[in-house]
UniProtKB/TrEMBL annotation:
Pfam families listed in its UniProt record: ARM_PUB, U-box
Enzyme class name: transferase
Keyword Membrane: yes
Pathway(s) this gene product operates in, as recorded in its UniProt entry: Protein modification; protein ubiquitination
Organism superkingdom: Eukaryota
Record keyword Membrane present: yes
UniProt GO MF annotations: ubiquitin protein ligase activity
Residue ranges annotated for the U-box domain, each copy included: 71-145
Protein name: U-box domain-containing protein
Family matches, as InterPro entries: ARM-like (IPR011989), ARM-type_fold (IPR016024), ARM_PUB (IPR058678), PUB22/23/24-like (IPR045185), RING-Ubox_PUB (IPR045210), Ubox_domain (IPR003613), Znf_RING/FYVE/PHD (IPR013083)
């Protein structure tokens, strides 16, 4: 029956492929190769013992408990999770729990001590340092049994400490070095722990930092900016910044500062403002400042040893390119060449953003011409079209569609780079409808403008290359 199913699927796939590929004579090769792979896979699957048929053979292995061969002392276990405690904390009833367990107990709405059932009059958790040290010593002593040492957990900051640091930082009468070191300490806290970041955020941090960022001595301004960009701004704050052209100009000047960190932080704030402002007029006002593009595009030329510059650079460029009226400024600043050159250096999310930016820029004639003029654009897009994510696939297909609609040279390059194989794989995959639609439009475009035998040769080559890679 399974074989019947497979041969049914096989026929269906052949029909489907034939329907898509009818115009190409060369495609018989691809169909055969693809179908052979499918067929081979299904044969492999059908000879593999399926868990449904022999449930008893596969079950025991997965149910076997992880046995370290050591007995965890009773007092080292959390009464809630029954596991070895990593961060033991004592509540007001004197009972000790692991911090994550009691945290989720309390956040589930419980107001009693799980062991004594007494009402918790105070949710303060006091770290039980003695017990933690005993547990760590025990871990070290039992290393031979595979017990790993538990790292000392970071204690959350005391709200009183955060308040006093903020007071020092914002005090005009305090000496600069004190204000600076308060800001640095706050930045460290905010960077190291999410809890501390939300604690700091709850203390009016933006209202305190915004005036320092724009009106204090230079050093203080830069340190304050570095802290400010760790927190999201409200829409009203973004709009207020966007409509203040002095502040926008100040930020765009910082983009050519000698310190890379200052440049990255000012790009980060520009991105926060552009992405966070709802009004299209205000966004266009910020994105109209020429210096911004040179600065942001330059960040994308930063060495890979400073990944934050690439990350912030692409975020900012993407936010700016969403504003249609000013997109040509990104092209004039050299964004297309940099995007193609750095595409391989981005992490997954940033690569998606980069491809989205490429697609946006391809929608204006100047952008399309600039990408078409870069010899690596098309081969690069074809190479990564299926490699990053569903969204990335959509963007790359969209960019290729724009390029190939405009330029015959791009069509030739795409075919040489093996785009047909990629597109056929794409339409068979379970990618998004949008990506499929673009792929089908691109296939149709290439089919309409290319004589059959030309495509045949180049794609045979691309196809064997694909098989070799996998
Ligand atoms: C720490 O935990 C142990 C074991 O639960 C407990 O006996 C001890 O009283 C706790 N110490 C503090 C200071 O709460
Ligand atoms: C009031 C309340 O939320 N009680 C919860 C306490 O925790 C237990 C176990 O996690 C839940 O079952 C209760 O609903």
């Amino acid at each position: 029956m399974f074989l019947c199913f497979i041969s049914y699927k096989r026929n269906q796939s052949v029909t489907y492929l034939k329907r898509i590929c009818r115009p190409f004579t060369f495609t018989t090769t691809i169909i055969n190769i693809n179908i052979n792979i499918l067929f081979l896979l299904s044969l492999l699957l059908s000879s593999y013992p399926l868990p449904l048929i022999h449930p008893l053979q596969t079950m025991p292995a997965s149910l076997e408990p992880l046995d370290l061969g050591v007995h965890i002392p009773y007092h080292f276990r959390c009464p809630i999770s029954l596991e070895l405690m990593r961060d033991p904390v004592t509540v007001c009833t004197g009972q000790t729990y692991d911090r994550p367990s009691i945290d989720s107990w309390v956040s589930a709405g419980n107001t009693t001590c799980p062991v004594t059932r007494a009402t918790l009059t105070d949710f303060t958790l006091i770290p039980n340092h003695t017990l933690r040290r005993l547990i760590q010593d025990w871990c070290v002593a039992n290393r031979a049994f595979g017990v790993e040492r538990i790292p000392t957990p970071k204690q959350p900051a005391d709200p009183a400490l955060v308040r006093s640091l903020l007071n020092q930082a914002s005090s005009d009468s305090a000496p600069i070095h004190l204000r600076l070191s308060s800001l640095r300490r706050l930045r460290q806290l905010a960077r190291d722990s999410d809890k501390d970041r939300s604690l700091i955020s709850s203390q009016n941090i933006r209202q305190i930092l915004l005036p320092i960022t724009f009106n204090a001595a230079d050093e203080l301004k830069h340190e304050s900016l570095a802290l400010l960009v760790l927190f999201p701004l409200a829409e009203s704050e973004c709009a207020a910044l966007a409509s203040d052209s002095d502040k926008v100009c100040y930020l765009s000047r910082l983009l050519s500062h000698s310190s890379l960190e200052v440049r990255v932080n000012s790009a980060a704030l520009i991105e926060i403002v552009v992405a966070g402002t709802h009004s299209p007029e205000l966004r266009a006002q910020v994105s109209d400042v020429d210096e911004i593009y040179d600065g942001v595009v330059d960040l994308l030329r930063s060495p890979i040893s400073y990944p934050r510059a690439l990350k912030i650079g692409i975020k900012a460029l993407f936010a700016l390119c969403l504003v249609k009226q000013t997109r040509h400024k990104a092209v004039a600043a050299g964004a297309p060449a940099v995007l193609v050159d750095r595409l391989a250096d981005f992490e997954k999310c940033d690569a998606e953003r980069a491809l989205a930016t490429v697609e946006l820029l391809c929608r204006i004639p100047a952008g399309c011409a600039a990408f078409a003029g870069h010899a690596l654009t098309v081969p690069m897009l074809v190479k990564i079209i299926l490699k990053i994510s569903d969204r990335a696939t959509e963007y790359a297909a969209g960019a290729l569609l724009s390029l190939c609609s405009e330029s015959e040279l791009c069509q030739r390059e795409a075919v040489t780079a093996g785009v047909l194989t990629q597109l056929l794989l794409l339409v068979q995959s379970d990618c998004t409808e949008r990506a499929k639609r673009k792929a089908q439009m691109l296939l149709k475009l290439l089919r309409d403008s290319w004589p059959q035998d030309c495509i045949g040769n180049s794609d045979d080559f691309a196809c064997s290359q694909f098989i070799g890679e996998e």
